[in-house]
Amino acid sequence: MATRESVPRSKRRATSPKAQGRRSELLAIAAELFATKGYTQTTVRDIGDAAGILSGSLYHHFDSKEAMLDEILRDFMGSLHAAFAEIVAGGESPRQVLEGLVRCSFGTIHERPHAVALYQNESALLAHLPDFTFVARTSQDITGLWLGVLAAGQESGDFRADLEPGVVYRFIRDSVWGAVGWYKPDGKLAHSTLADQYLTMLYGGLLRA
Amino acid sequence: MATRESVPRSKRRATSPKAQGRRSELLAIAAELFATKGYTQTTVRDIGDAAGILSGSLYHHFDSKEAMLDEILRDFMGSLHAAFAEIVAGGESPRQVLEGLVRCSFGTIHERPHAVALYQNESALLAHLPDFTFVARTSQDITGLWLGVLAAGQESGDFRADLEPGVVYRFIRDSVWGAVGWYKPDGKLAHSTLADQYLTMLYGGLLRA
Amino acid sequence: MATRESVPRSKRRATSPKAQGRRSELLAIAAELFATKGYTQTTVRDIGDAAGILSGSLYHHFDSKEAMLDEILRDFMGSLHAAFAEIVAGGESPRQVLEGLVRCSFGTIHERPHAVALYQNESALLAHLPDFTFVARTSQDITGLWLGVLAAGQESGDFRADLEPGVVYRFIRDSVWGAVGWYKPDGKLAHSTLADQYLTMLYGGLLRA
Amino acid sequence: MATRESVPRSKRRATSPKAQGRRSELLAIAAELFATKGYTQTTVRDIGDAAGILSGSLYHHFDSKEAMLDEILRDFMGSLHAAFAEIVAGGESPRQVLEGLVRCSFGTIHERPHAVALYQNESALLAHLPDFTFVARTSQDITGLWLGVLAAGQESGDFRADLEPGVVYRFIRDSVWGAVGWYKPDGKLAHSTLADQYLTMLYGGLLRA
DNA sequence: AATGAATGAGGATTCATTCAT
DNA sequence: CATGAATGAATCCTCATTCAT
After folding, report:
1. Is the CB of C128 under 7 A from strand E?
2. Of D122, D174, D205, which is closest to C204 when you measure between CB atoms?
3. Cβ-based contacts of B6 with chain C (< 8 Å)
4. Which residue is nearest to nucleotide F10 (CA to C1')?
5. Phi/psi of residue D159, each to 5°?
6. Which residue of B has its CA nearest to C50?
């Protein structure tokens, strides 16, 4: 069930002190392009151009274009799962934990919009690439965390019991992550304010009491 | 003397009586592939193979791969907007209209899952293709319809007034359309039942009263 | 040495009374397109469009696109050679015969500009197509006719003797046929007037006497 | 931070020191094939084969097959116009200038036969390609130079006045450039000797004085 | 005589990747 | 570390041609 299987040694390069910095820069550039234009629509030349080097030089840092995507997603899925797990482990009430998860999600959208968009938009691709099953696996782990909270909330009487947790989870997940498609990190609508509004709707519904 | 004026190539597709059937078949095949594998990941050969003809033969029916996507999306966006507009024009209460829009959305997911998925997943691509501005345009028209209903509901007192309609719309839209990613048309969860649950959450919220 | 070898029977269709008219129309259309856009750049669809039928229907009249070119050129080369031969056989003085040949050339440019242009412009193509050696052969026959006249003129003392007939022939041929590239059949410069000017230059030169 | 502005693709071809040599080689190969087989009949694979590389590798040097033609013709038209302009600017008598232009033309046929043939034979194609209007434009500039000399010669009394300069120019141009179709650079007929004969005919005419 | 769907071969172009320098 | 020339496979598309209707 674990998500952190280690990467085959041949795939990860020797991490010289400053080389890591360059790697991160390149991955950030790639992530932005992947998110903006789509992974397939982004050429290694696009990445090279944006980084100021020739496309062939990328292969000094990464084994392949796919390896870049792998690293981006592996890092993202790992931290996301870790962050969620920490919140769940906090031992607060289901209602407070759920609020924490939602706020954490919006925080992630704010801080790492490209990785989120990648995770959201490239599902068709990821499902076809054999090396990316870890994404689905971590996804399921995360789903497990959320379902646990929802079940606990129904048990404790906090959440209404006439809804299927699976449906509720997907409802929340899709609405929250969907915000990555339109949320502007530097707009006037702060991500915490957005979280407030979403939690209000989520908890109280749309109708006037 | 023969008629010599040359017909513009793009207009040549005279809708002959029976040819339409074949076109529709091919478009359905293409839509499924586009939705499943992604537009860029789908080759014209994939489409030809699935249709039992050679890839080159597709060009007897369509000008290009892009033209197929265009036709699929144009048709979809058109009917969707029309269906929504009809519901809005029904003159019912905001609450009833909103319910109608949500149920219509789930019905569309059920009946035309591939087109919905396309519309959902290929946003990065569509934003970069100059010939597909109509998608964004129709999208805005649809947004206008929903915002109108939400505003009317706030005015009438049906909907709570402490939420921004723009945020509410996106919340609903993303949660509802997101279902295309996991809803199984032939599963045990009927789309109308799904709509019920979503409306319950949407209207009443997650917390026990 | 003869030029009129008969066409293989399988290649020429049964000549029903009116079918010939249609054939001629189609060939005229094809010739114009071949001359204007170039043979390779002209698609059978272009021809079909211009004729008001589908490209496939052309194959009811001709075996292939190449067969159309063959028929156009064979007819043209044949009549041209015949016309030149008749002038040469007229028994007039070399100077009069040469004048006749030049006038006949301009008349041909006027009346059959497309075939002339084809003959002029598609030399690179014709040299590579094995079925079109007849063009080069007839061309040589025609060259023979002109060289004969030039030699006779030098012998008779009409033409200056310090020029190689081969060079003179090419000089005349290129300048005269080259006119097909800019002569306008319906312009104010009549082809006979043009012939006058060319003959003046040809015979008297550019310098003031 | 890397430089992120992307360089326009068409401008990427930085003229690196040694890369120019390879480009020129490839262009020379392409020009010969274009001239011999025709532009359309020449495939990029033909060019690649002749150059000893794969066809796809050509795109490392040039944007497209058309770009190769563009570069060949642009360079040719430019030098031709420059050479003619320099002769005209020399300030000699019209008769001497005209002789210079003719000799320069034969020199060009001798040294750059492929480019000349291209310019001569692909008129139908060039007229249809929107990016090649510069050929027609430079052509007109060149025509202007010749017409100026012819007019000056008529004014000075060197050239006979009963001929239209426009017709005279086309007569000379077509006869001279036409030689590219049969002149053999390594044959026994030197290009300067050929120029002699042409000038003799041009100035003195065919008839014995 | 003509249609329209389909073939099959080929053509230009793209692009991830390699490697000698 | 980076360059730049080259690879080789794949992609979209074109087009002459065929044939059942």
Report:
1. no
2. D205
3. 46, 49-50
4. B43
5. -105, 150
6. B4
Measured CA D192 to C1' F12 distance, in angstroms: 51
pLDDT at D203: 94
Instruction: Note whether C191 and C183 are within 8 A (CB).
Output: yes
Instruction: State, as a whole number of angstroms, the distance between the CA of D129 and the C1' of E9.
Output: 26
> Can you give the pLDDT at residue A1?
44
Residues 7-36 of B with CB under 8 A from C: 7
Proximity of residue D49 CB to strand E below 7 A:
no
Q: State the pLDDT at residue C91.
A: 86
C67-111 residue pLDDT tens:
999 999 999 999 999 999 999 999 899 999 999 999 999 999 999
Where along chain D do its domains lie? 64-204
Are C52 and B2 within 8 A, CB to CB?
A: yes
CATH class name, domain C64-204: mainly alpha
The string of DSSP letters for chain C reads --S-PPPPGGGS----TTHHHHHHHHHHHHHHHHHHH-TTT--HHHHHHHHTS-GGGGGGT-S-HHHHHHHHHHHHHHHHHHHHHHHHHT---HHHHHHHHHHHHHHHHHH-HHHHHHHHH-HHHHHH-GGGHHHHHHHHHHHHHHHHHHHHHHHHTSB-SSS-HHHHHHHHHHHHHHGGGT--TTSSS-HHHHHHHHHHHHHH-SB--
Instruction: Give chains near A: 3+ CB pairs under 8 A.
Output: B, D
A11 sits within 7 Å of strand E by its CB = no
Q: Which residues of chain D have pLDDT under 70?
A: 1-19
**Cα B59 vs. chain centroid, distance in angstroms?**
25
Nearest to A124 among B36, B167, B205 (CB): B36
Q: What is the dihedral of CA A195, A200, A202, A204, to 10 degrees?
A: 170
Q: Which DSSP state fits B6?
A: P
Residue C207: beta bridge partners?
A: D159
Determine the residue type at B83: A
Question: Which among A157, A76, A150 has a CA at the least distance from the CA of A112?
Answer: A76
Provide the pLDDT for residue D177.
98
Indicate if the pLDDT at residue A14 is higher than 70. Answer: no
Percent of the residues in chain C that have a pLDDT greater than 70, as a whole number: 91
